[in-house]
Amino acid sequence: MPDRLEEYLDTVREQVRWKRARDGAAQELRTHLLDQRDAYLEQGMDEEAATKESVRQMGDPVEVGVALDRVHRPKPQWGLMALVGVLLCMGYGVQLLLREVTAISDPLLSVDFYDSRWIVFAVVGIVVMFAVYLMDFTLLGKRPMGCFVLGILFLTVVFLTSRKVAGRPFEIQYCLLLAPVMLALLLYGLRGKGWKGLLVDVGATLALTVLALLIPNVTLAMLICCTGFVLLMISVKRGWMGLPVKKGLAVLAGLAGMAVLIFGFLAMQSVYFRRRFWFALHPELDPMGRGYHAMVIRSLLDGAQWIGRGEVTVPGYNPIERYLPNIHTDSLLTWLIHRLGWAVGIVVIASFALLLVWMARKALRQRGMLGCLVSVAVVSTFAIQVFTYVLFNLGFCLTGTLPLPFVSYGNAFMVVHMALIGLALSVFREESLPVQNDKMQTRKQMPLTQLIFWKDGDLVIGFSRLKQIR
Amino acid sequence: MGADKSQLAGSAAMLIMKLLDGQDMYGYQMIEELRRRSDQTFELKAGTLYPLLHNLEEKGYITSYQDDADAARPRKYYHLTKSGREQLREKQVEWRRYSRAVDLVMGGGVCFA
Fold first, then answer.
1. pLDDT tens string A185-209
2. Residues from chain A contacting residue B33 (CB–CB below 8 Å)
3. Could you give the CA distance from residue A127 to residue A132 in angstroms, rounded to a whole number?
4. In chain A, positions 356-395, which contact chain B (CB-CB < 8 Å)?
5. Each residue of B37-52: pLDDT tens digit?
6. What pTM, to 2 d.p., does this model score?
7. What is the C-alpha to C-alpha distance for residues A156 and A178, in angstroms, rounded to an integer?
8. DSSP state of B66
9. What is the ipTM of this complex?
10. 3-state secondary structure of A457
11. What SS3 string covers A76-88?
12. Cα angle vertex A161, ends A156, A163, to 5°?
């Protein structure tokens, strides 16, 4: 009598307070009850007695439900949120301090021009972060390919309609920060698709990289390319692509090597890239041209104190606020080290390192494919951004830089950063949802004993299962 | 009593991990196998088993995957992870020490010499 089973399962479900965990938790119990009932039927019991006995065997439904409720609860991410809060407070403090820069570098603006806008977008960002955090991120996994195609259309439209700022389309730059998450969704949609899936993903990663190069923004291109590679590597390593792991990783390593060689060769062929690389290493060779920004940064860092305001070692760079470009956005860390000392700079860098390591550990621990890939995409995006920013601000200016998340002035960038962090937090919040299925895990992990086994004294070869694995 | 319960839960977790050490299994299979191997002594209730499995999965000692060969009755198989295997080894050492101590006390008066 299946009604009795359903009644039992309903009681269990009611005890689990997190609605989204209910079905996942109950599904397994249903299969068990049916197995148990069949076993009793085989022993000769009638259906009603068999159902009754299997329900009795399962134990008190309230107790079972309460025990499941204890395991499956949303995990609020207060710790990470507090850290983001600290970084935002730090950012606002820096923006207030930057009023003295505005007064000198942009005397026509009111001194609170930047910080008053910064705070508005920070508040919008916080609202967006909470909205994304409370959203069910698994909705993205319902139509991953659709989301990816929509994302591509959206980026194309933005690219074509972007305003040109300093000769480059502007809006597309912050929108492209969403590309790694799009690639995570694409990979999720391509799970189990083998070599064909791998090829499609590599093609999509290259296409998005080329889009960034068309801006041209080399930092963004590098960010997309590296993140795409990391995501693909994780998918192959965990068997989600349905490929032999070692062979898949070897092919990936080959592809990466080839990409580096081809890019290196092309870059070396181009006079522009060769000069750019050369001046990044030796900015002193062109102190008033290509090496200018790096030279100012290096001279400021040379004069920086451990704590307190540093000296300006080159008299021509005084007052520094007029000579160091883009202090509110790109050169903020250099200025901070010069203005307050190395100790403060190190605290800022360490805070970001803490955030990144904390998030990376959580991301790699995710059991579900979608959660793992989405959170790794977010962490890699932040990691590459922070890494290039710090390098740039320490005087190695090979590529331009993107704003420092949560600190730099950058209105829309701020909102995109907050949305991304909200997405990662949403994944971490839902990590204790019962894993429902990542079908392709079956391929890698189904052992031989489940294909060839003894049953009732017969040796059984499970051809139906074999078919499924292929 | 709380202490007894946690002791029981502790050894049930160890027994389950031991079962999974040999091969991946689904819940029903584990209960049957435990009963068979313990000579019909251990009758683990399914209602106890599943929360325990989900708990072990949460801790990363086991992982699960679904076999949809029978669409009406999808089976969730559990697999012992590397950290689960380490945990099992530790638990086994702990258990041997404990059971030896119990044996010493309980059988303390017996002398076979």
1. 999 999 999 999 999 999 999 999 9
2. none
3. 9
4. 365, 367
5. 888 888 888 888 999 9
6. 0.84
7. 13
8. E
9. 0.83
10. coil
11. CCHHHHHHHHHHH
12. 130
